[in-house]
Amino acid sequence: MDSTGLRQLLGGRRLSPAQRRIARYLLDHPHEAAFLGTVDLAERVGVSQASVTRFAFALGFDAFPEFRAALRALVLTKPAKPAPTEPLNEIQLLVDTEIRNLHALRDSLTDLGPLHQAAAALAASRPLPVIGQRVSAPLAHLFGYFAAKVHLDVRVLDIPGSLLEDGLTRAVDAGATCVLAFALPRYPRETLAALTWAKQLGLTTVLVTDQPITPLTDHADLVLTAPVSSQFAFDSHAASTALCAALLHAMLAALPENQQASLEAFEQSAAQREVFLAD
Q1: What is the pTM of this model?
Q2: Residue 223's closest CA among 128, 114, 65?
Q3: 125 CB neighbour count, 10 Å cutoff
Q4: What is the CA radius of gyration of the chain?
Q5: pLDDT tens-digit profile of 5-56?
Q6: Minimal CA–CA distance to 264: which of 65, 7, 31?
Q7: I want to staple 37 with a disulfide (CB 3.0 to 4.6 A). Which of 20, 25, 155, 267 is the partner?
């Protein structure tokens, strides 16, 4: 990695001696530091965990995870490669269709209003039911896995029929105000039934799908879209997954500070328990 970007990030700041030690460590070990929590980074530098947190604040970030995300972006950025001289093969051409989908998603997010509106509705719902059936189930579980780290009660419903209706009803009885549904092609009839039932229960419905007009969009209050590549033998959902990550990012920002802090608490706990293998 070219250290210029990292030096620009660190430059022009008035740092304490402990913070300068942290900065020196980042410059010497950027790839390692980019994946450390506050506890591990403090141990490696020989400073307190509070010094690491204050270091992130000193650089203008609201929290350490935000700083670490910026550091990772710098570390993982690679110099642009020259365009290949050989014609692209069949699979490369297929991957190109997904790259274009990601560009389309990026361009659609120029106006962040709908994303923030949906994120605020999801953050305010306790519990938060998340629907995903058939091919959409993995994306619903992915969202649920990460959302559960900061949201107090996330309930992923990937079952059809009356069992799903029961799950939505219990969620409403427990205080739910909003439901998130993932519906990628092909659209299951059960998802339409679930959205219809959710509306009858009075839930605000947020739908993540591939097009602004589908058989399901009329049954949603808020619709977020990411194109799906159908050129492969089976559909590819790279853009949908990126939209899922963007929605999680926006929802985290919409949560109360104490819930946002639980993400850092998890990182500390995971480090202490050595949940993950060292790089």
Answers
A1: 0.70
A2: 114
A3: 23
A4: 22
A5: 667 666 656 677 788 788 888 888 888 888 888 999 999 998 899 889 988 8
A6: 65
A7: 267
